[in-house]
Amino acid sequence: MSIPNVTPLAQEFVIAARVPDPKRYFFHDPNLARLDDGTLLVAAPLWGRKGADAGRSLRMIRSSDGGNTWTELPTLPYEEGRPFVVDGRLLMFVQERTHRDFQLVISDDRGETWSEPRTLIEGPLWNISTPQVIRPDALYWAMDYDSAGIDYKGKVMVRWDRSKPVLDPDAWSLSNVVPLPELPAALTREVYPSDDKTKLHRGSPSPFVWLEPNTVEVGGKIRVFVRSVIDNYATANIAAVLDYDEDANELHFTQFAAWPGGQCKFFIINDPASRMYWMLSNLVTNSQDHLGWGERMRETKYVGGPGNERRWLFLHYGVDCLNWFPAGCVARWPDSVRRSFMYPSPVIDGDDLVILSRTSRDAEDQHDADLCTIHRVRDFRSLAMDLRCGSLAD
């Protein structure tokens, strides 16, 4: 009998793309989209490592057989790219320079060619592979909004009025910008103070960073769930929650919430067929280093605190998008904390969940990935219990 929390659901993977040289390049935040005909499309930002004299570009890879084989498409001159489909039309959020301006391109030939980029909103905006809410009248997507040169400082809701053409700048608007909330003292032990550079390799200079917001509709309301890096990952499994008032076009920070894997990038997907939300995230082994891994981690150039572990990729499910049940381990590297399956980007493909992972196998550390890998969790809905049975809901 297979035990999904022990035996991974999708350990076997297909390599969709690999960097030309792990010493010079890494993948930064790849994204997966599924077209209406079943075509899978990956946009993979390829960045040169610091000091490697290598630039940045957006590699495009396509599969017509469910992710078994992949074809390289023309590379694009962008630093970021997030493809998505609205009413059968393939769009892609791109940035010629990361963290600067909201730009879109369109493809009418399954990603083979793209229109020229159109800047729709000017400003220090950024996001990657996170969910959007797409309604008949509007699209909503929360994004990071930088301030004073500091990345991820604020959060803002981007709205597309779908009564207007998608490339019309007047169709796009921003909510208020929500500043970084004050971190409650009870959420940190200051294990890795930001002014002590001796404890970590490439540690964060800030005691609290929030980034990569997920936008989801829950009970008719739009909510945003944000990754929270606290005390250089020493306080793991916490997310920030924001609520959006559509009528007032206002976004508000609401609370911090317990969240499995909230310290690393996670992805929520709404599945109307099961009337459930599914969430992918990285669980962590030793966030406050009670096992004494720290010195060895610094020697091997492990990035950040021990809680920045990305080798256990897990799938969860729930009915309220706030409380999560474990469905199983998707994939793992049991032999090394310096490897990772991370930054998941999933799509539903019939009865299966197809997941793109930013993967470090032969890279220098667990953060700068050398592979884009594809994992298929078959019949994923069978992993869930009926959480509504016995409740007070109809």
Provide a descriptive summary of the structure in words.
This protein has 394 residues and is mainly β. The protein has 1 helix and 26 strands. Strand 22 and strand 23 (325-332) form a beta hairpin.
Write the layout of secondary structure elements.
Blueprint: E1 14-18, E2 25-27, E3 31-34, E4 40-48, E5 56-63, E6 71-76, E7 80-86, E8 89-95, E9 102-107, E10 118-121, E11 125-126, E12 133-134, E13 138-147, E14 150-161, E15 172-174, E16 208-218, E17 221-230, E18 238-245, E19 250-258, E20 267-271, E21 276-283, H1 294-299, E22 312-318, E23 325-332, E24 340-349, E25 352-360, E26 371-377
Antiparallel strand pairs: 1-26, 2-4, 3-4, 4-5, 5-6, 7-8, 8-9, 9-10, 11-13, 12-13, 13-14, 14-15, 16-17, 17-18, 18-19, 20-21, 21-22, 22-23, 24-25, 25-26
Number of strands: 26
SS summary, helix count:
1
Class based on secondary structure composition and strand pairing: mainly beta
Q: What's the end-to-end separation, in Å?
A: 34 Å
Radius of gyration (CA) equals: 20 Å
Secondary structure: helix percent: under 10%
Q: Indicate the mean pLDDT.
A: 96
Low-pLDDT sequence parts? none
Q: Per DSSP, what share of the residues sits in E-state strands of 2 or more residues?
A: over 45%
Question: Secondary-structure element sequence?
Answer: EEEEEEEEEEEEEEEEEEEEEHEEEEE
Shape: globular
Major beta sheet summary: 5 strands, antiparallel
